[in-house]
Design goal:
Elements lengths: L1 E4 L16 E11 L6 H7 L7 E4 L2 H11 L4 E12 L2 E10 L2 E8 L3 H11 L9 H17 L6 E8 L6 E9 L5 E8 L6 H6 L9 E2 L1 H10 L16 H11 E2 L7 H17 L6 E9 L4 E9 L5 E8 L6 H8 L9 H10 L6 H6 L7 E10 L2 E9 L5 E8 L6 H5 L12 H13 L9 E6 L5 E7 L6 E8 L6 E11 L1 H5 L9 E10 L3 E10 L8 E13 L5 E14 L7 E17 L8 E17 L9 E11 L3 H4 L1 H4 L4 H4 L6 E14 L2 E13 L12 E4 L12 E4 L23 E15 L4 E14 L11 E12 L2 E10 L8 E7 L5
Parallel strand pairs: 1-4, 2-5, 6-8, 9-13, 14-16, 17-19, 31-32
Antiparallel strand pairs: 2-3, 4-5, 7-8, 10-11, 12-13, 15-16, 18-19, 20-21, 21-22, 22-23, 23-24, 24-25, 25-26, 26-27, 27-28, 28-29, 29-30, 30-33, 33-34, 34-35, 35-36, 36-37
Length: about 850
């Protein structure tokens, strides 16, 4: 409340009657009643100052009060004349400040709820306590409680003066949560054509009370032989929708809290599902909520399905560039199909695979393309659709700017872009450019943005790429254990190194080069040190990758002698244009020298001394079309690899047979063929299905020599560790110990298989997605085996396992947790736990 008293102070003899109307000069303005606010600050808020001429009565004093009132920190204002003489006046402004917050507390909530609300409210000490703030606080608490299912919660905010701070108050928020309401039973009425299980499967938030009848139903169906009957599970594989409906009926672990906003969203989702099935007129006639004394809410939805509608005719209007037949082929919707408005819009604009009408135009530069579908006739249950097209004109790229790259050189980014000045605008090339930047693994994929800005004329467009750099240094520590293969590893890597900057004496960052230093120590006194440098764009003109790698290893044990290994490898790779530019080829050559003394080389208790050399050529053909370097949701990875040495055993076959064992294995000779294929598919939301097939074959030179002891296959565990001088490819297989499958040739004593194959299936779901942390959980099923001889191979002779896993991609590396159940292990504990820091199967 504001009072304007124009009169003398109490001690004065003057009265308000002596104040004649007219202009007055303000001699001074005095502030009284302030506690936390400073008078100069308050004086700066008003428009009148000492020396100003004001009209009394007039708007000046009222305006002064309004300005103070607008600051939201003053509860009351009184203005009066403290002194009057002739045509001059002295004003006193007496204020009453709003109280401020000293502290606040909750009564009736748990510690976890209090912490959550403190984050949401963000009430700070010293905040001005206005009615608006208190109402806002009350609304936020009420919204939170309602969102937790406390539909009848009440609260009261009590304020008391703070004993230590003047004009400060302490708030006590009393909360009576009442019952927590959860969804009990969900019943549908009026659904004739679509059964209730299918409808319940469409709801995201509304779930009925817990039940688990999966096992009982499976046993019942087996007893009745239903899976083998026509339409049964083993007669025809169910669709994804059928599977979801079945699981939602028989598997509910937790009830859903009843939240009005989410309930409304699920009702809209239900109608959208009906419309997708062609039920254009479907509506919810009534919804009844029956609150139970137990805290459950039984929901009844009364539906009117109407009849399914079908498309009778599709007319194209305004299309000049493409024929109606061509556009109809892209649309993929024909007369007689169910009238699904959502699918129609998807095929016009939003097909995730890019096979929509808009892509046909926009990828050819028609940035301003637009299409509108209109119902032109509805006859019985048939609909005629007219699709009206505005093609516009072709737009060309004018400028391309890049922001957010604090360290990364601009040319490193530009060489990955498929959208260059002068090119026709293409949405496909825009998405591809984003993908290329994400796969560099130096930017946060979630924060890559592209903003097109068309010119006023509409024939050109400017593009702005915004990037957010990921951590530049990668320090990892790894610890793994399993049987005899416990090991520790440390690695320091830079994924955005710049050798050019280093040579110039500048900060060595920004060229997307990779440098890594690694040290590895094993339980059996084995140490390995390696260095690797990768240049992803040699020469700067075409995507040619250069590789340089060096390594040195040492092993010494009292029981098995000592070894000393040194090696180097150089390689080149390039990106191909056929069959597409997702494909690359790489080749490298390596030389390694291994010296051993009193060492059980063949793992047969025979101590040998000698030297092993390996001169190898390795070539690989790879295709990677995945969309994310850490958590792919679509795309595939295909790899073919050949590694071989010169055919010493073929050239010197007769002479080698007369040599001693240590001399016979002086030069490694083998040829090794590896193949793998992986596929990623998003099922719904962020749930991703992942499948990988892999296999390998090892061969030797010469009929008499056969397959030698080098680079044979073993399987089991997750660490894929190899410290054998003869070389050994360890294939991960969760649910089994390290090196669990490692056959031995009884004739030659050679350890390891000559061929293997493996299949992996996973269902992945991300739990945390951020710049520095990525966590996802998954369920997996794997099967694999390795065989001693080619003729031992059997397609279904596989060691099977299922389990659960967790991957944590954090700044210090990747933490892997896997629980696998090995079906084909001997009697005993079939559950195997694998843990690793710095790597693991996946």
């Amino acid at each position: 409340m504001a009072l304007i008293l124009l009169g003398p102070p109490i001690a004065s003899a003057a009265t308000t009657d002596t104040l004649a109307p007219g202009p007055y000069i303000i001699e001074k303005i005095e502030i009284k009643g302030h506690q936390t606010l400073e008078p100069p600050t308050l004086l700066s808020m008003i428009t009148c100052q000492a020396g100003d001429i004001v009209q009394i009565p007039g708007p000046a004093i009222s305006h002064m009060i309004r300005k103070l009132w607008q600051q939201k920190c003053i509860a009351d204002v009184t203005v009066y004349a403290s002194q009057i003489s002739e045509r001059s006046i002295a004003l006193t402004i007496e204020i009453q400040e709003c109280p401020r917050l000293a502290d606040y507390s909750f009564v009736g909530l748990s510690n976890e709820e209090v912490e959550t609300l403190q984050e949401k409210l963000q009430l700070v000490r010293g905040a001005i306590l206005t009615e608006r703030l208190l109402k806002h606080t009350q609304d936020k608490i009420q919204t939170y409680l309602t969102g937790q299912g406390y539909l009848e919660a009440t609260l009261q905010i009590q304020s008391t003066p703070d004993p230590e701070l003047a004009n400060h108050k302490q708030l006590t928020i009393h909360v009576d949560k009442g019952k927590r309401f959860t969804v009990g039973m969900l019943t549908f009425e009026g659904n004739v054509d679509i059964d209730a299980d299918r409808l319940k499967a469409q709801l995201l938030y509304i779930k009925e009370k817990p039940r688990f009848t999966l096992i009982q139903d499976a046993l019942r169906q087996l007893i009745l032989l239903k899976p083998f009957r026509k339409g049964g599970l083993l007669w025809q594989l169910p669709s994804l929708e059928t599977t979801r409906s079945y699981l939602r009926k028989h598997v509910i672990f937790l009830p859903s809290k009843f939240v009005a906003s989410k309930y409304a969203a699920d009702k809209e989702r239900l109608i959208q599902y009906y419309q997708q099935q062609g039920y254009r007129d479907a509506v919810i006639l009534e919804d009844r909520l029956d609150k139970q004394a137990s805290g459950e809410i039984n929901i009844t939805l009364k539906l009117s399905e109407g009849q399914p509608y079908y498309i009778r005719h599709i007319y194209w209007q305004g299309n000049a560039l493409y024929t109606s037949q061509k556009l109809g082929e892209i649309l993929g919707i024909a007369p007689g199909d169910v009238y699904n408005t959502a699918r129609l819009q998807q095929k016009l604009f939003m097909d995730p695979a890019g096979h929509d009408v808009a892509s046909l135009y926009v990828d050819d530069g028609y940035l301003f393309f637009n299409a509108e579908s209109v119902e032109v006739a509805v006859v019985d249950n048939s609909v005629d659709i007219a699709i009206r097209i505005q093609e516009g004109i072709q737009a060309y790229i004018n400028k391309v700017t890049i922001t957010g790259n604090a360290w990364t050189h601009e040319d490193v980014i530009r060489r990955e872009l498929r959208t260059l000045p002068g090119d026709k605008f293409s949405r496909q090339q825009l998405f591809r450019s984003q993908r290329q930047l994400a796969m560099l693994n130096i930017f946060d994929p979630a924060q890559l943005k592209v903003t097109p800005t068309p010119s006023p004329s509409g024939d050109t467009v400017d593009l702005r790429y915004e990037v957010k750099e990921s951590p530049k240094f990668d320090f990892k520590g790894g610890i793994g254990f399993g049987g005899e293969s416990a090991h520790v590893s440390l690695s320091l890597g830079v994924n955005n190194f710049s050798l050019g900057n280093l040579l110039k004496g500048q900060v060595p960052l920004g060229a997307a080069q990779t440098v890594s230093l690694q040290a590895e120590m094993h339980r059996n006194s084995y140490m390995n040190f390696s260095f690797q440098f990768v240049e992803p764009w040699l020469g700067g003109r075409k995507p040619t990758t250069a590789l340089l790698a060096l390594h040195k290893a040492y092993q010494h044990t009292t029981s098995n002698g000592s070894t000393h290994t040194m090696g180097a490898r150089i390689g080149l790779g390039t990106r191909l244009t056929w069959p597409d530019d997702y494909t690359s080829v790489r080749g490298d050559i390596g030389l390694e020298r291994q010296r051993y003394q009193a060492y059980d080389l063949l793992d047969n208790q025979e101590k040998l001394t000698g030297v092993i050399y390996e001169l190898s050529l390795q070539t690989s053909l790879e295709r990677n079309s995945t969309d994310h370097p850490i958590y792919p949701t679509r795309g595939s990875e295909i790899g073919l690899q050949l590694k071989l040495t010169p055919p010493y055993s073929w050239v010197f076959s007769q002479a080698r047979s007369t040599l001693s064992k240590s001399a016979r294995y002086t030069w490694k000779d083998y040829h090794q063929w590896m193949a793998n294929a992986a596929y990623f598919q998003r099922l719904f939301r962020d749930l991703v299905a992942y499948m990988r097939l892999g296999g390998g074959i090892l061969g030797g030179y010469g009929d008499g020599y056969g397959v030698g002891p080098f680079e044979r296959f073993g399987m089991g565990g997750v660490h894929a560790v190899d410290y054998s001088l003869l070389g050994r490819v360890m294939v991960p297989l969760r649910g089994y110990p390290e090196e669990y499958i490692l056959p031995r040739d009884p004739g030659t004593g050679y350890v390891g298989g000559t061929l293997f194959n493996k299949v992996t299936l996973e269902l992945r779901y991300p739990l945390v997605k951020s710049l520095a942390t990525y966590i996802y959980g998954f369920g997996f099923a794997e099967a694999g085996n390795t065989w001693l001889n080619y003729h031992d191979w059997r397609l279904l002779d596989l060691k099977r396992t299922v389990g659960l896993g967790l991957r944590l991609q954090i700044p210090v590396g990747t933490i892997g947790l896997d629980w696998g159940y090995g079906f084909d292990k001997p009697q005993g504990d079939k559950l195997e736990f694998h843990w690793s820091l710095g790597g693991g199967a996946g």
